[in-house]
Inverse folding.
């Protein structure tokens, strides 16, 4: 504003006449000469004019308007009344139970501010834990990563009628009427479910059935059925059930086509039982290290762990059962079945296996995964001859698992098509996707008046049903389970239902006319079935612990009453009709039967053996694949970013699937295998995030192909194989995403150390299997008077660097990983991703080798070539190395979990120009994401290659389909204690530093030291076999302090001198021959 | 006056007077450039614009636009960086080391070699910056006072040493180059007539008067700067080699790297000087000043440094065998016989075998052949860096982490783009700056000029 430069203090100054001065003396002298002032031409000449006034007015007005605008509202509303058990920032853990028809585990659910964000096994209670281990419990990747599906925005958000949104009142009325009408018309009313092991769910079904005059039938359908086994048991022992196995008592284990550590039976229980007998340190004369034989076609993780593994075509496996029976029978003085020879190698193996079994009578188990009742009966016969019933196997007190009745399912589909089914309620299964005759099923659905699906998604089956009345997610549900007699577990909701969904049991209760909610119904049911004086106490404790042990059954022997000859005939028959290629269908350790296909963490979890993510494929023996595609060298089968897989056409009974081929060492020649559970949402059904991904053109494409089409009914059972398949090369290629493309360990003994039990027993680790790397030094170390090449010290003692002051001061965190304990299940990978908000990056990025897993599970196959062998054969180094890249046709396998090794002399730390990665005084190698500028020098200089770079911003729409952190709902699964890293920074394992800090804080507040096993490292707590042990190396009493002194302990790549805080324990195989150390 | 042996080939051909030299060098600046210049600058600036587009794409999308992966975290980015830095070595070697050794033939080539150095170092410096995941935080590598508390750079990191080495080298090179340009700018200033040109060149001439005192100081400053710059010739690439040599990666962790990198750098630098000079000599008609002898001298440097590089390669191979370290041994066998064997053999052929043909006199004096060889050497040296970086990383300690590296169009775009930016800058230099150190060339006219040498000889005979 320009100034007029005319100032006066009063009018007297302006007009200094005496009159004014005197007038001013009178305070109230009116009127003031305003007109005179305003009329002064000098004032009107001021350059602050009317327009300026308007400008200032306008400015003030708009400024006031702008200031009145609402600032963004941040909805961080504090609790007005704080709930008793929720403290912001402090996690709450609730005991619960996971059961989806296949996988069972007692679990703990971690919630933060009312959101479940993490699932781990219940370390104190449950059948899936080793009572001798601290802070671990066995679960698998499917269970711990199931938390993310809670926040799947593709879940059904309320009841739907014929695909259109409806409401519960309408649905309840219509369905109750429909059920009544169906019963009244004399047609069948059927509830088709997965195996139900919940007593209260069964009671709820019974309640509805009662309402319908007992007319509601319950048909149980296991997507991957074990009905042959349960039916065989019915015939052999008069009880149709899945036996209770006790691997802790077994000295010899024989698996015939049974992946009992992966997809067969209650693997979460078998896993810890199995490894409890695999640690050489705990061996005694009465409890020797178990011997594990595996006869199988496809290399499963069970086979990968076996001491002796014999690969055979699927059609040979029934013959193995027969031959083994004969050999055992011969040794037991019983009659054989007249089994013939298979081949010299196998005959010899069976003979040897039988001898070992006979030596371990009553202390062995023979498993079979066969879909043939005859084979299963023969297996029962073997176990009976060996006296295993009552010691290692209990069929009197069997489990409740695998109640599926294939015959009833087959009949149901027939009846539906015949029009005799009036009402069909479907829960927990997806027959329109998984049945071999899914087309018949779909046709039948149309002929059924009332079809109700409880599925949480509008999946293949639900989308065809008249009503979709979505069930709660299991984390929103109440339930109880009884996996074994006397053993009860509870499941409790950890969050209020996110959507307008209702537990299916509660729906049944509504339709039965009951108004009691399911929670009370379970309590009533417990009160009725478990009469006890202090019910409230039992219930509360059961709920708190997640487990209520009503009684412990005594192991009971049973007499075998099966017809071996008939069984043998059936088994022999099932071995017939083999073509050039035989197909076997299997379930992957990640995706399972397909129920979990919508889980991005599982899709991106590499298969433990093939390391493939995001696809299913044809597994073939490398030699077969070479012939099929007309190539010569193993290198032609390399699959990597620019080296796609060969696309094969697999034809079975006129049905064809085009799938990429993955060369699988360990596969029996002539066998091909395809994983089930893929190809969800083929017809555009929205089956959940990640099962079916959007293409660039907006269409949806399923991940993988549905291989259930190749399953079939055989002798009344669902059969997951085909005796004759043709395999042709299409001439096309298909990109596959592998997290590990190199197959062998290149004979590098400082990466993985392995030995045999015999060698281990000699207890000379440093001379044999665990030798130390030595460096010649210029000092007379050996005191022979001369300084020469013989003066050597271990490389670990030679150091250029000053020590970090971590020894003996405060904590020094470390981890021990037992390669014998690691069965390769991969639960640690997903647990780590969940705990640490590790992004899922999708197939395309994995294909570029940009997977972000902080913890990876390296798999090494053995090769026929070693340096020792090559030297003996006079092969040059170049040739040796080339040969070493090729795995053996039937290799030994070792799994090695690798995460940041937290080196005390970390090569990554010295090279970071901005000191973004530094060493903590507790021995941790830390990452300051905010300081990282992303030069990636640290990643290059990491000998273990564990550092991961954020190549892109993964929290963008581009990765939205796969990365839970993108969408609003999915983001709720993130761990608020761990930052989501931005583009351009390096990240890596922190040893769950957030948990370390939280535990330290807790201990400090309680005024005590941190207890061993108290820190909840995600991988450690996910590892039910106790292979991963985390602890304080400065605490002399900790488990880890003892483990690092063990003879098997070594540091990977010790000779580089980086001094890791992570140590490994050499793998010991229980094979007889000793291994000689080679320099 | 200093006399030069008659058998030495003259460095300035034909009969040239001082005025002729001024005309020859300043003429092109005063006159309209030839059509060829317009064609070249159009092409190169188009490529430069494409390169800048690629850079913007990279920055907006992330380093994932490159073909890098969890195992190979550096590839073309650092390959290009080291390659460009290497090229930037010849300039200072010519201007500083040859000055100290009183090599007169440097006068004709030092100006353009120094320009090349500066532009190459700018191109080189782009890559370490652009390869950062968070390029907007690039200034964090400087030890600046900050508001983050006591947060400081990590003086242990070779990358930080790089920052200092490159920035020092760049600033000294620029100063050295500019000091040398001052008298020449003054000459141009005194000749040009257009007002803007007058203004432009008088600012650049920095008040040069051309009196004896100014010349004395000029000589002294040049000598002092040469003294400062000479150790830099060796230090810069030594420091760059520390990025690799101080690491634990088999194939990188090698004590031979500093001398090997320095000779490699000089080798590639001279090759690039040849490439540029041979074109410029033709286009700007500088045949009288950049003679066959000059070319031959530089080819001799190429043989020497190429042979040093060859010896280094063979020494590496020998040590990998002799050292008996499993990983080291494999790294070199893998280089030669693994999936990237072709890059190793491209490197070996271009860098070790091909320069040896310069032992043949007629070939090292053949311009076409020299041009061809200069390209070959530069290809070879690019592969050398690619081999060192990618083949070492893609298969190191843990076989489980082994991968392959496949470049993307962004990788290629950035490399081609820097070639475009470099050429554009160089063309602008050739247009507006004196491409020869004309005043220095004048200083050797009487001793090394062809006609004067003949005159002297005749006088001698009389």
């Amino acid at each position: 504003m320009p100034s007029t430069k005319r100032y006066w203090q009063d009018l007297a100054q302006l007009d200094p006449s005496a009159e004014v001065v005197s007038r001013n003396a009178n305070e109230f002298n009116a009127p003031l000469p305003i007109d005179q002032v305003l009329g002064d031409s000098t004032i009107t000449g001021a350059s602050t004019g009317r327009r300026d006034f308007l400008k200032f007015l306008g400015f003030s007005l708009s400024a006031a308007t702008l200031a009145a605008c609402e600032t963004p509202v941040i909805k961080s509303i504090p609790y007005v009344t704080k709930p008793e058990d929720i403290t912001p920032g402090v996690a709450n853990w609730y005991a619960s139970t996971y059961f989806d028809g296949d996988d069972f585990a007692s679990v703990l659910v971690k919630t933060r501010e009312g959101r479940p964000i993490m699932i781990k096994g219940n370390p104190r209670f449950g059948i899936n834990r080793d009572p001798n281990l601290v802070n671990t419990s066995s679960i698998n990747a499917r269970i711990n990563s199931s938390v993310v599906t809670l926040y799947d925005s593709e879940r059904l958000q309320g009841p739907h009628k014929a695909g259109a949104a409806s409401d519960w009142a309408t649905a309840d009325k219509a369905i109750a009427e429909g059920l009544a009408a169906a019963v009244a018309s004399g047609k069948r009313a059927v509830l088709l479910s997965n195996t139900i092991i919940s007593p209260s769910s069964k009671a709820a079904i019974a309640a509805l059935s009662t309402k319908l005059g007992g007319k509601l039938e319950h048909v149980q359908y296991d997507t991957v059925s074990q009905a042959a086994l349960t039916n065989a048991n019915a015939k052999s022992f008069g009880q149709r059930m899945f036996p209770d196995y006790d691997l802790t008592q077994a000295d010899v284990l024989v698996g015939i086509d049974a992946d009992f550590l992966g997809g067969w039976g209650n693997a979460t229980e078998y896993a810890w039982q199995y490894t409890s007998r695999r640690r050489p340190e705990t061996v005694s004369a009465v409890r020797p290290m178990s011997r594990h034989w595996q006869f199988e076609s496809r290399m499963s993780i069970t086979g990968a762990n076996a001491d002796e593994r014999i690969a055979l075509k699927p059609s040979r496996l029934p013959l193995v059962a027969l031959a083994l029976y004969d050999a055992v029978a011969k040794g037991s003085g019983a009659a054989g079945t007249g089994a013939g020879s298979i081949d010299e190698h196998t005959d010899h193996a069976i003979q040897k296996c039988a001898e070992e079994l006979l030596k371990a009578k009553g202390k062995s188990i023979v498993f079979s995964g066969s879909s043939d009742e005859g084979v299963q009966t023969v297996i029962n016969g073997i176990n009976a001859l060996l006296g295993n019933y009552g010691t290692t196997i209990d069929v009197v007190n069997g489990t409740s698992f695998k109640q599926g009745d294939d015959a009833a399912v087959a009949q149901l589909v027939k009846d539906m098509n015949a029009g005799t089914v009036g009402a069909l309620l479907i829960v927990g299964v997806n027959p329109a996707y998984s049945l071999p005759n899914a087309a018949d099923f779909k046709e039948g659905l149309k002929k059924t008046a009332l079809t109700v699906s409880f599925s949480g998604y509008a999946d293949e089956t639900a989308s065809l049903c008249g009503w979709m009345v979505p069930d709660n997610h299991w984390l929103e549900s109440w339930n109880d389970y009884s996996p074994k007699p006397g053993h009860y577990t509870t499941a409790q909701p950890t969050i209020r239902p996110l959507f307008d969904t209702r537990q299916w049991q509660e729906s049944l209760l509504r339709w039965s006319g009951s108004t009691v909610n399911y929670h009370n119904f379970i309590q009533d049911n417990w009160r009725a079935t478990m009469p006890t004086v202090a019910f409230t106490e039992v219930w509360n404790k059961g709920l708190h612990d997640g487990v209520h042990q009503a009684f412990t059954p005594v192991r009971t022997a049973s007499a075998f009453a099966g017809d071996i000859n008939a069984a043998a005939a059936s088994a022999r028959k099932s071995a017939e009709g083999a073509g050039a290629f035989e197909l076997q269908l299997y379930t992957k350790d990640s995706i399972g039967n397909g129920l979990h296909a919508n889980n991005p963490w599982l899709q991106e979890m590499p298969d433990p053996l093939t390391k493939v993510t995001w696809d299913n494929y044809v597994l073939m023996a490398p030699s077969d694949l070479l012939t099929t595609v007309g190539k010569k060298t193993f290198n032609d089968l390399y699959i990597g970013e620019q080296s796609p897989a060969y696309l094969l056409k697999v034809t079975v009974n006129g049905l064809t699937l085009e799938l990429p081929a993955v060369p699988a060492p360990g596969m029996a020649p002539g066998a091909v295998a395809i994983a089930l559970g893929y190809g969800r949402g083929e017809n555009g059904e929205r089956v959940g995030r990640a099962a079916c991904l959007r293409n660039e053109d907006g269409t949806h494409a399923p991940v993988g192909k549905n291989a259930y089409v190749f399953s079939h009914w055989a002798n009344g059972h669902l059969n997951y194989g085909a005796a004759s398949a043709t395999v042709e090369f299409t001439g096309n290629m298909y990109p596959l995403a592998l997290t590990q493309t190199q197959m062998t360990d290149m004979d590098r003994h400082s990466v993985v150390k392995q030995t045999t039990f015999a060698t281990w027993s000699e207890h000379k680790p440093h001379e044999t299997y665990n030798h130390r790397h030595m460096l010649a030094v210029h000092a007379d170390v050996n005191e022979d008077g001369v300084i020469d090449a013989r003066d050597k010290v271990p490389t670990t003692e030679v150091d250029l660097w000053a020590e970090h002051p971590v020894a003996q001061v405060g904590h020094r965190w470390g981890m021990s990983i037992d390669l014998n304990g690691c069965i390769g299940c991969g639960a640690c990978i997903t647990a780590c991703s969940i705990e640490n908000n590790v992004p899922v990056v999708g197939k395309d990025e994995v294909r570029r080798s940009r997977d972000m897993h902080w913890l990876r599970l390296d798999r090494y196959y053995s090769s026929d070539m070693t340096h020792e062998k090559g030297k003996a054969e006079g092969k040059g180094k170049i040739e040796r190395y080339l040969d070493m890249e090729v795995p053996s046709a039937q290799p030994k396998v070792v799994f090695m979990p690798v995460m940041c090794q937290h080196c005390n002399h970390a090569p990554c730390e010295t090279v970071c120009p901005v000191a973004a990665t530094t060493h903590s005084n507790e021995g941790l190698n830390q990452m300051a994401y905010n300081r990282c500028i992303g030069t990636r020098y640290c990643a290059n200089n990491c000998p273990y290659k564990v550092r991961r770079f954020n190549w892109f911003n993964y929290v963008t729409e581009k990765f939205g389909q796969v990365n839970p952190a993108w969408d609003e709902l999915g983001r709720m699964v993130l761990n608020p204690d761990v930052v989501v890293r931005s583009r351009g920074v390096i990240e890596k394992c922190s040893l769950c530093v957030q948990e370390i800090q939280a535990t330290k804080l807790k201990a400090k507040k309680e005024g005590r030291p941190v207890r061993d096993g108290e820190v909840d490292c995600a991988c450690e707590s996910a590892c039910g076999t106790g292979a991963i042990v985390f602890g304080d190396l400065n605490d002399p009493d900790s488990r880890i302090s003892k483990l690092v002194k063990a003879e098997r302990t070594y540091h990977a790549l010790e000779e580089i001198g980086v001094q890791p805080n992570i140590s490994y324990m050499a793998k010991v195989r229980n094979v007889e021959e000793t291994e000689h150390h080679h320099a | 006056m200093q006399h030069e042996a008659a058998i030495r080939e003259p460095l300035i051909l034909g009969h040239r007077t001082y005025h002729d030299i001024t005309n020859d060098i300043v003429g092109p600046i005063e006159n309209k450039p030839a059509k060829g210049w317009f064609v070249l600058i159009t092409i190169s600036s188009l490529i430069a614009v494409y390169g800048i587009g690629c850079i913007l794409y990279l920055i907006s999308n992330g380093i994932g636009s490159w073909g890098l992966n969890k195992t190979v975290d550096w590839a073309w980015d650092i390959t290009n960086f080291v390659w460009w830095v290497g090229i930037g070595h010849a300039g200072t070697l010519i201007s500083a080391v040859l000055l100290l050794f009183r090599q007169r033939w440097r006068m004709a080539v030092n100006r353009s070699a120094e320009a090349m150095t500066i532009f190459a170092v700018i191109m080189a410096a782009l890559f370490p910056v652009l390869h950062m995941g968070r390029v907007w935080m690039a200034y964090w590598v400087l030890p600046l006072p900050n508001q983050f508390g006591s947060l400081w750079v990590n003086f242990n990191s070779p990358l930080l040493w790089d920052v200092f080495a490159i920035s020092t080298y760049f600033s000294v090179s620029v100063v050295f180059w500019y000091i040398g340009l001052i008298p020449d700018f003054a000459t141009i200033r005194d000749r040009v007539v257009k007002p803007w040109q007058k203004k432009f060149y008088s600012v650049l001439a920095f008040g040069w008067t051309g009196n004896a005192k100014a010349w004395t100081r000029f000589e002294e400053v040049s000598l002092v700067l040469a003294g400062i710059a000479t150790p830099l010739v060796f230090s810069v690439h030594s420091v760059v080699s520390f990025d690799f040599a101080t690491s634990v990666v088999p194939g990188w962790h090698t004590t031979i790297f500093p001398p090997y990198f320095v000779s490699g750098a000089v080798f590639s630098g001279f090759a690039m000087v040849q490439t540029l000079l041979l074109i410029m000599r033709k286009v700007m008609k500088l045949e009288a000043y950049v003679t066959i002898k000059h070319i031959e001298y530089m080819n001799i440097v190429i043989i020497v440094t190429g042979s040093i590089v060859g010896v280094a390669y063979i020494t590496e191979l020998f040590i990998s065998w002799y050292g008996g370290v499993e990983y080291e041994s494999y790294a070199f066998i893998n280089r030669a016989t693994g999936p990237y064997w072709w890059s190793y053999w491209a490197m070996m052929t271009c860098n070790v075998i091909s320069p040896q043909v310069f032992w043949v006199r007629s070939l090292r004096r053949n311009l076409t052949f020299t041009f061809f060889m200069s390209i070959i050497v530069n290809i070879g040296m690019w592969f050398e860096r690619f081999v060192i970086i990618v083949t070492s990383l893609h298969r190191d300690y843990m076989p489980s982490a082994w991968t392959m590296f496949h470049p993307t169009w962004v990788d290629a775009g950035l490399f081609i783009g820097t070639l475009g930016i470099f050429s554009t800058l160089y063309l602008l230099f050739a247009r507006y700056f004196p491409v020869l150190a004309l005043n220095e060339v004048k200083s050797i006219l009487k001793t090394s000029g062809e006609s004067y040498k003949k005159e002297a000889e005749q006088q001698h005979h009389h």
User: Anything to note?
Assistant: The CA atoms of residues 79 and 386 of chain B lie 5 Å apart. The mean pLDDT of chain B is 90.
